[in-house]
Design brief:
The structure holds two protein chains of two kinds.
Chain A (H helix, E strand, L loop, with lengths): L6 H23 L1 E3 H10 L12 H7 L8 H12 L3 H9 L12 H32 L7 E6 L4 H13 L4 E4 L27 H18 L4 E5 L5 H10 L4 E3 L4 H6 L3 H18 L2 E3 L3 H5 L3 H21 L7 E2 L1 E3 L9 H15 L6 E3 L9 H17 L4 E3 L12 H17 L3 H4 L7 H23 L1 H6 L19 E3 L7 H5 L8
Parallel strand pairs in A: 2-3, 2-10, 3-4, 4-5, 5-6, 6-7, 8-9, 9-10
Antiparallel strand pairs in A: 1-11
Helix pairs in contact in A: 1-11, 1-13, 1-18, 2-3, 2-9, 3-5, 4-6, 7-8, 9-11, 13-18, 14-15, 14-18, 15-16
Chain B lengths: L12 E8 L5 H13 L3 E12 L2 E9 L21 H11 L4 E7 L7 H7 L16 E5 L6 H11 L3 E5 L7 H15 L7 E5 L5 H6 L4 E3 L5 H18 L1
Parallel strand pairs in B: 4-5, 4-6, 6-7, 7-8
Antiparallel strand pairs in B: 1-3, 2-3
The chains are: A alpha/beta, B alpha/beta.
């Protein structure tokens, strides 16, 4: 099954996306944020909390006299002067000791003092990646679409039970949904957690608990089960760092989601996102972008071009952070009103269009949510049509729809039914997409052309005005966000000439102004 | 008296499904049957029972219930009676109130799911029914997601709003009830509750629940913007004519 699409339009869209993101990446190269700096401390081995429960990375970064120099410089100077480890320096700062003035220590000495800790951090990331690669070779996954389910009890130990049960029922990817408030916290909670609303806190210990449980079940089932969390919100780079250390396999990470839907400052988001994606690239973590959000908040037929435009923008940002196509889980969702005649044709058109435009990307396909109701029987049928679309169009990451989507966070039995539905449809129609041809000039192909030209139109408008202006004007999802408004703006700062981030230097992607 | 209807009047036929945290065996099927009997059901058939994971079994059960309900004694008035068109609502407000009604909506507490409040307020609306922003008679403030109860009350006081729409989609561990209650209590404590209409919305909200929580109305699944618009316009135009 192949759409005939206008390759010139696709190339044009890519060059417009480049024109949109290049000025932003240039801006990013001149700035850092408190959360980027905290991620640096975590990668140097700083962990734990003070007596009040404040994470030591926060204590250390908040103590910086000149954040614009970067925490690495202050930390390196403190190591050189005191002979302590980064963790000991953080504990001393938390106990009330001031950080030494980094100007006192010669450049060579402070860099040398931190070197072994930077190397150790990078080595941990590389080791985690190596372990994943070895496990995937030994315990291969089933063929895509990879069945992905969420667990969200609020209690990491209940989540563990649910995750293991889901893996046994056929899940290949487990996402632990975060507590709804976490994206707005300017720190990463600590330790194993058993309370949360609408989800479970993302903490390093929770990552460890879940990874260990999934490793065990992977060995038992003979196939590697992946773990997903969220690198979004005010602590995006810290989550990316922690996920890299604890061998998560995927992270939700969208170029604009936090700006539009969580009112997080756009400058903060772009700077945080770039460093997060540089880390993801090094750690082999596949990002999942959030285009589904355009469809759940507005009409899915109208918004289809916005989804494609966003996919191009996410791709362009990801490339500049050094992410290869194979780590770009670009998003889409099956959200068209089930009452719309031939809505299924529109879904197939859009899914197949993305498949052909991003042939090497592990596309992430999200299930129906907006039109799911308490009628679980109809909901199960809508999910089956979604499953069919996914297997026909060779989507890669398939988030299983739940028949109880509109009712509650999934019960253990709901997940089993959802996985059974997906496995049935994807088995009975496994090669369907390869056996049929799309009618030339027919409704599916016409719709694909319409979506592509709509996306080009959006991108050219944004390229003309500039991305920050476009977000201020309400171009995306009808939401207006001022460039100096929103949460986290006070944590953005200009890099001084002597700024130093040894991790950014070691990672791929654009790190200096063009 | 009314009983569930399967294929014969008064047969009391019900279906249910559930998971037990035990490995599947014939004894597990029997456990499921006995559980249904303990629920008071009769003629219990466990039509499906199987392992869904190590240590978990899933069951589908058909049975009959002896329970019956006297429907005529039930009071659960809907807030969405006889909705007016957008033009009728605007006309009612223009004639009886004589100014735009200020409506503030928000997803309160940590809830970030604006799909419901957006469907009611955004100009585009829902299922072809325009949202309140499109009405001439309303001035709409959609505050969005994760708005604290304190911020919402402060906003309502500062802007002197006529109606508050509080939305809750996440219901895990009773967070919706806790947030709705906190909002009603703070409005009382600040002596502004009587000055405005307080409306709850969300897929699990019912008008009855909203009344119990001290709200003027509650709108649940399937609500259209015109249902909410009609309620606000009727109540506030009645109040205006009484003054």
């Amino acid at each position: 099954m192949e759409l005939r699409i206008d390759q010139n339009a696709v190339a044009g869209a890519r060059s417009l996306a480049a024109a949109i993101v290049d000025p932003i990446v240039d801006f990013v190269a001149g700035h850092s944020t408190l959360s980027v700096e905290r991620a640096v401390t975590r990668l140097c081995g700083v962990d734990g909390v003070d007596g009040e429960g404040v994470p030591l990375p926060n204590r250390l970064v908040d103590a910086l006299a000149r954040p614009g120099l970067g925490v690495a410089r202050a930390l390196g100077a403190a190591l050189a002067e005191t002979g302590r480890s980064p963790q000991q320096v953080a504990e001393a700062v938390a106990a009330g000791e001031p950080l030494p003035d980094p100007e006192r220590t010669p450049e060579g000495a402070l860099r040398a003092a931190l070197r072994s800790h930077v190397d150790a951090g990078l080595a941990r990331i590389d080791a985690a990646r190596g372990t994943r690669d070895a496990m995937l070779a030994r315990l291969p996954q089933d063929e895509p679409p990879l069945l992905y389910v969420i667990v969200a009890s609020g209690n990491i130990y209940e989540d563990r039970t649910a995750a293991v049960a889901a893996a046994e029922a056929g899940a290949q990817i487990i996402a632990v949904i975060r507590s709804t408030a976490q994206s707005l916290l300017d720190y990463v909670p600590y330790g194993a957690t058993t309370e949360g609303f609408g989800g479970t806190y993302a903490t390093q210990e929770n990552f460890r608990i879940m990874r260990a449980a999934l490793d065990e079940i992977s060995e038992r089932l003979g196939r590697y089960v992946m773990l997903t969390n969220y690198a979004s919100g005010l602590c995006m780079p810290e989550i990316a760092a922690t996920a890299a250390l604890e061998r998560l396999d995927m992270l939700l990470n969208d170029s604009m989601y936090g700006i539009l839907f969580r009112d997080i400052n756009m400058q903060r988001t772009f700077v945080d996102q770039h460093f997060s994606r540089q880390l993801n690239a090094r750690s082999g973590i596949v990002i999942n972008t959030g285009e589904d959000n355009y469809l759940t908040t507005a009409d899915a037929v109208e918004q289809a071009p916005a989804v494609l435009a966003s996919q191009f923008v996410n791709e362009a940002f990801a490339r500049r952070a050094g992410l290869p196509d194979a780590q770009m889980g670009l998003g889409d969702a099956y959200e068209i009103d089930p009452d719309l005649r031939d809505g299924f044709l529109l879904q197939v058109a859009q899914a197949q269009l993305a498949r052909q435009i991003f042939p090497n990307a592990p596309l992430k396909y999200m299930p129906p949510t907006k039109h799911m109701t308490g009628n679980i029987f109809k909901g199960h049928l809508i999910d089956a049509m979604f499953n069919l679309t996914s297997v026909m169009t060779h989507q890669t990451i398939h988030l299983c729809g739940m028949l109880t989507e509109a009712i509650h966070t999934p019960f253990l039995g709901d997940r089993a039914l959802a996985l059974e539905n997906a496995r049935y449809v994807m088995n009975t129609a496994r090669s369907f997409g390869d056996e049929i041809e799309i009618k030339p000039g027919g409704r599916i192909e016409q719709r694909a052309h319409e979506v592509l030209s709509g996306a080009v139109h959006i991108l050219s408008g944004v390229a003309q005005r500039g991305l920050m202006n476009a977000i201020e004007d309400g171009t995306f999802a009808d939401v207006r966000r001022p460039r100096d408004g929103g949460r986290g703006y006070d944590g953005v700062f200009v890099k001084e000439a002597a700024y130093w981030n040894p991790f950014a230097d070691a990672l791929g992607g654009v790190t200096v102004r063009a | 008296m009314v009983r569930p209807y399967g294929d014969t009047h008064d047969d009391g036929a019900v279906q249910l499904s559930f998971t037990l945290p035990i490995a599947w065996s014939e004894a597990a099927d029997e456990a499921a049957r006995q559980l249904a009997v303990k629920m008071g059901l009769t003629e219990v058939s466990v039509v499906e029972g199987r392992a869904i994971a190590a240590g978990f079994s899933f069951f589908v059960v058909y049975a009959r219930t002896p329970a019956a309900i006297e429907v005529s004694t039930i009071r659960a008035p809907s807030a969405a009676d006889a909705p007016l068109s957008m033009e009728q609502v605007d006309d009612l407000i223009a004639k009886r109130v004589g100014r735009k009604l200020k409506v503030a909506g928000a997803c309160i507490g940590t809830d970030a799911h604006t799909v419901g409040i957006d469907a009611i307020l955004n100009m585009k609306g829902y299922k072809g029914d325009y949202g309140l922003e499109r009405y001439q008679g309303f001035e709409v403030f959609n505050l969005g997601s994760q708005i604290s109860v304190e911020d919402l009350v402060r906003f309502a006081r500062e802007r002197d709003v006529d109606a508050i729409l509080a939305s809750q989609v996440v219901t895990q561990k009773g967070s919706d009830i806790a947030n709705f209650t906190a909002l009603a209590e703070l409005l009382e404590a600040e002596n502004v509750r009587e000055r405005l209409l307080l409306i709850a919305g969300g897929p699990r909200v019912t008008n009855l629940l909203a009344a119990e929580l001290g709200y003027d109305a509650g709108f649940g699944r399937g609500t259209l913007p015109s249902d909410v618009a009609t309620f606000i316009a009727r109540r506030l135009s009645d109040a205006a004519s009484r003054r």
